[in-house]
From TrEMBL, chain A:
One of its GO terms (cellular component) is mitochondrial inner membrane. Keywords: Heme, Iron, Membrane, Metal-binding, Mitochondrion, Mitochondrion inner membrane, Phosphoprotein, Transit peptide, Ubl conjugation. Pathway: Energy metabolism; oxidative phosphorylation. This is Cytochrome c oxidase subunit 5A, mitochondrial. Pfam families: COX5A. It is a peripheral membrane protein. One of its GO terms (molecular function) is metal ion binding. It comes from Acanthoscelides obtectus (Bean weevil). It comes from the Eukaryota. Component of the cytochrome c oxidase (complex IV, CIV), a multisubunit enzyme composed of a catalytic core of 3 subunits and several supernumerary subunits. The complex exists as a monomer or a dimer and forms supercomplexes (SCs) in the inner mitochondrial membrane with ubiquinol-cytochrome c oxidoreductase (cytochrome b-c1 complex, complex III, CIII). The lineage of its organism: Eukaryota, Metazoa, Ecdysozoa, Arthropoda, Hexapoda.
TrEMBL record, chain B:
One of its GO terms (biological process) is mitochondrial electron transport, cytochrome c to oxygen. This is Cytochrome c oxidase subunit 4. Keywords: Membrane, Mitochondrion, Mitochondrion inner membrane, Oxidoreductase, Transit peptide, Transmembrane, Transmembrane helix. The keyword Oxidoreductase applies. Component of the cytochrome c oxidase (complex IV, CIV), a multisubunit enzyme composed of 14 subunits.
């Protein structure tokens, strides 16, 4: 009885137990490695990402969320590419949200960095007809939302 | 019999269908539809769940905030044209259709720290009153050894015993002048 079970189990686990030589050659080593990408390459990579002609809303959002995981304020040229991508997919709200997020990303240096970025991307904003959050009145809290912890 | 069952069970575990993620996505979509209604899934969000949350570290949520209705559909048609033709109200309506709160709104201070501080201090005051109550009505008075003259006598005794003569008490005492070293 037990023998039957053992034999069957052995046949099932055989593949897992025998080392796979073919894979061993291609397996990557899990070692820490530092990125050798320079800042210029990083900027160009994201600029090219947003400049793709066939980009869709999903990819724009993914690109922005990825970019926001880095400890940096994106260069104006990346933002210009992203804003134009928003224009191509006809999503105005995304463009305004992006500008708001940039302002938030400036952190404590918002008074230094944000005006510079707006100054750099102003031609694009005018060209595409994008309003800054300030023009829409989004720089101050506009609506109050009751906390979900206080509703009931 | 039991062996067969075990073997079949293991086989089932081993032979997980290759399209399992796809299948679970299909099952999830029907369930999430009941949760998110007709809201459009527009992105990955912060963890792949089709949920809406305003987060500064993931500025783009996975779904739009509002379910599409006739007004929003009309706005979306207009959005395909030149954005310069949109009025400020229309731009704001478009934003609110996609997002719930602006950054300024969800990062606005709630003032909650005041109630937290206040309630904490209330608990501290209760603890202090309890301490003084116990001191007044429960504990017996401090022993005699806490009286100043008893403490002075104990210090004198330590000095007489030459306690800690290298770096401590006795090293600071001048035994010839019978006073502290200057």
């Amino acid at each position: 009885m037990f023998r039957t079970t053992a034999v069957r189990a052995q046949s099932i686990f055989r593949n897992a137990l025998t080392p796979k030589k073919a894979q061993a050659a291609t397996v990557s080593r899990f070692m820490s490695s530092h990125s050798t990408e320079t800042d210029e390459q990083f900027d160009t990579r994201f600029e090219n990402f947003f400049n793709r002609k066939d980009i869709d809303g999903w990819e724009i959002r993914r690109g922005i969320n990825d970019l926001w995981g880095h400890d940096l304020v994106p260069e104006p040229k990346i933002l210009i590419a992203a804003l134009k991508a928003c224009r191509r997919v006809n999503d105005f709200a995304l463009a305004v949200r992006l500008l708001e997020a940039v302002k938030d990303k400036c952190g404590p240096k918002v008074d230094e960095i944000y005006p510079y970025i707006i100054q750099e991307i102003k031609p694009t904003l005018t060209e595409l007809g994008i309003s800054t959050p300030e023009e829409l009145g989004f720089d101050k809290p506009e609506l109050h939302l009751e906390s979900v912890f206080h509703i009931h | 019999m039991a062996g067969t069952l075990v073997a079949l069970g293991l086989r089932a575990i081993k032979h997980v269908p290759k399209n399992a993620p796809l299948r679970s996505a299909a099952a999830m979509s029907s369930y999430t539809r009941t949760l998110i209604g007709k809201r459009e899934i527009v992105g990955f969000g912060f963890n792949g769940e089709p949920s809406y949350i305003d987060r500064a570290d993931y500025p783009m949520p996975a779904i739009r905030w509002k379910e599409p209705n006739a007004d929003i559909q009309a706005l979306r048609e207009k959005e395909k044209g030149d954005w310069k033709n949109l009025s400020v109200e229309e731009k704001k309506a478009l934003y609110r259709a996609s997002f719930c709160q602006t950054f300024a709104e969800f990062k606005a201070p709630t003032g909650e720290w005041k109630s937290v501080l206040g309630i904490s201090l209330m608990f501290v005051s209760v603890a202090l009153w309890a301490f003084y109550g116990l001191k007044a009505f429960v504990y017996s008075p401090l022993p005699d050894s806490f009286k100043p003259e008893n403490r002075a006598a104990q210090l004198r005794r330590y000095i007489d015993l030459h306690a800690n003569p290298v770096q401590g008490l006795a090293s600071k005492w001048d035994y010839e002048k019978d006073d502290w070293k200057k």
